[in-house]
Structure formats: structure tokens, C-alpha cells
Amino acid sequence: MPVFTGPGENRPGARPRCRLCIAEPPQFDATIALADYRAPLDTLALELKFHARLAGAGEFARQLHAMFEDANVPAPDIVAPVPLSRKRLRTRGYNQAWSIGKPLARRLGALADATLIERIRDTAPQAKLDLDTRRHNVGDAFKVLRNVRGKHIGVVDDVMTSGATLDALAHTLKTAGAVRVTNFVALRTPQD
Question: Where does the Phosphoribosyltransferase domain start and stop, copy by copy (predicted)?
């Protein structure tokens, strides 16, 4: 699967943005996604997220790095996972996005920082919400804890559905001074 471009970017081999992204351009600059969220890869993502089957995270990182090398996207300075709330992190015991992000950062030669961004509000799970509710749910849920001024941030997540969480994170990062945000996601729900 090719790179999905962000606002104002046209790159050879890049997949065009979906209708929603054209109508309402996201805050992030690009998204690198391995594949659409469907069988059999959806099972690997669910096993990683809910059953601590962490071996899949290393493979997701390896494949994301391979796609990055072909994507003609600048390397991020810092790689950070989509943060979980403290409550969810305590319950789950790990952050599945960090399980992908840490080995990915190593492969990219970027600083890996699991605590760069904090989820300051425990939000409802996004999976069962409509798009407008998703946006409202995460709109002010994040805080940047360190200086990102002038930096390119790579944000890692296991699954991108509507993009609302990643858009809210990109907005928060750019408000804090980041110049570019690239998403690295294992699976992406197909858009139109």
C-alpha cells in the first residue's frame, strides 16, 4: 500500500487522499500504512492490541520501515506512539503502538520517545463512534510534554480508522511547534 499524502502534497506513487481529506484536510502531512484493515491482518492487530502477542509488532515495524524507504518521505526526528490513558495503560499493561514504534524508531535512526505526548483525558474507545463524535472525543485529549519546535514527528498507531485521533495529535504537535507530522500505521480502514 502506498503512502497517503496530506494537504498540498503530490508525490509520485502516492495514493490520493480520500474525499473526506480533500474536503477537510487533516493536520498531518502523510500517512504510511501497510495494508487495509481486513483479514488476515486484522487478526494480528487484534492479537497485538488485546492479547499481548507482541511478536507481530516487530514485523509491523520492519514492514513499515521498508515502506518508508520507498515512500520519498523525510525521516522523522522523533518517533512517538499514540498514547493511552493512564487507566487504559494500567489495565492493558503495555501500549501496542509503542511496541511497534520503538523498533521502528531504531530502524529509522530516530529518537524514540514513549512519553513525548500524554493523553490528558481518558476518552471513550473510538471504534463505536461516528466521525463527528470521534473528533469531539479526542479533540483536546493530548498534551506535548517536551520541546518539538522545528521537529518532524513520526506518530505510530496500530490501526487508523477515521483518522480523528491522528489528526488531533497532529494538531496538538503543530500547535507546540512541530513542522511536520507523519503517521506510521500498521493497518488502515479502507476509505472511499
Answer: 100-187
